[in-house]
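# step 3/5: fold
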Amino acid sequence: MTLESLKPGHHARIAAIDWGALPPADAKRMRALGFETGVEVGMAHHGVFGGRDPVAVSIGRMTIALRKSQASAISLEAD
């Protein structure tokens, strides 16, 4: 399961991040914001437009907007 498929209100731990699938600037910013293996993330909500982009993700005390393409590079631990 990847982060963009997490349902709003649900939380999970990051199992892996495919840093190579992200542009270097995006990867650097996401690392600075705390996206790392083992961190708990939650889905606050999906966008309201056709592609449901962007998604709002909670990490720690922050809520961060990510593109679905960024969120799809983040694998979550299976329950």
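# step 4/5: annotate
The two ends are 10 Å apart (CA to CA).
# step 5/5: archive (pending)
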